[in-house]
Amino acid sequence: MAIPRVKFDPQRDKRIVIHNNLVNARYTFSVFETKLFLYCVAQIRRGDEELQEYEIPISLLEDQPGSDTYNRIDKASTRLMSSVLLIERLHTKKRFTKIAVMTRCEYQDGHGTMKVRFSDEIKPYLLQLKGNFTTAKLGTVWDLKPYAVRWYMLLREYRNFGKRIINLTLLREVLGLEDKYKDYKDLKKRVIIPTQKALEKTDMAFTYTPLKAGRKIVALECEIKTKPENRQLPLIHPED
To answer: pLDDT averaged over the chain?
Structure first.
């Protein structure tokens, strides 16, 4: 059964707002999981005191819905239910805790939608944020690959400074690459350059300078090419 296509345009101006500890958390999502997560976060409204049950059209998650869409949805939703975020504890540095992302993922047969519910443990990082958070337009990151979404948010957190030095150990942990691309040349070819090209189309386009400790490259100094926002960060969750 074919899944009807749904236009995404009405959602593009919605904003995702997440605590900076979540921006820097350690986790890995697929394209499907990234879109589902971002879409649901964008449904949270200013003033919400509890997380709701969110519904998303499946056609938004799949670029080319087809006969095997349901199998992909089933497998991806199972992964998402078992996904765990390794996140720095609020008000405590260098101590991490593991929290579940979702407590429910249910496909709505006949509607072409999925209903999901976040876990209660993630509430402090999504609700009633008064400061130390990062915002982005959903439409800006929607078509980015997972690596690029995470990198975009890392830069977006530092947008008012105009640059961010990203330690390569941190970068690998955030992107889930601890066991991949250990050689800098591979990391540059497979991750850094493709991400830089992807972000050229966003407000977080950047150039970078490798930083060395001795002969080893240990960090990247990323300079955001767009102008930093010369204004005080809002202290409340912005209106949708």
So the answer is: 84
pTM of the model: 0.85
Beta bridge partners of 217: 212
Q: Which residues sit opposite 105 in a β-bridge?
A: 116
Task: Tell which residue, 134, 22, 18, 155, has the closest CA to residue 87.
Answer: 22
Residue 1 has pLDDT above 90, yes or no: no
Please state, in angstroms and rounded to a whole number, the distance separating the CA atoms of residues 63 and 156.
Answer: 26
The token pair at 111 is 């509607």
More confident residue, 106 or 22: 22
User: Tokens representing 151?
Assistant: 């990198």
Which pLDDT band, with edges at 50, 70 and 90, does 13 fall under?
Answer: confident
- Tokens 């972000």 correspond to what residue? 199
Residue from 203, 59, 222, 201 nearest 137 by CA: 203
Q: How far is CA 32 from CA 12, 117, 128, 237, in A?
A: 17, 16, 27, 26
Coil, helix or strand at residue 129: coil
Cα–Cα distances (Å) from 137 to 96, 141, 203, in that order, read 28, 7, 10
Distance, in Å, from the CA atom of 40 to the CA atom of 52, rounded to the nearest integer, reads: 9
Parallel, antiparallel or unpaired: strands 133-137 and 15-19? antiparallel
Q: What is the CA radius of gyration of the chain?
A: 18
Cα gap 47→236, rounded to integer Å: 9
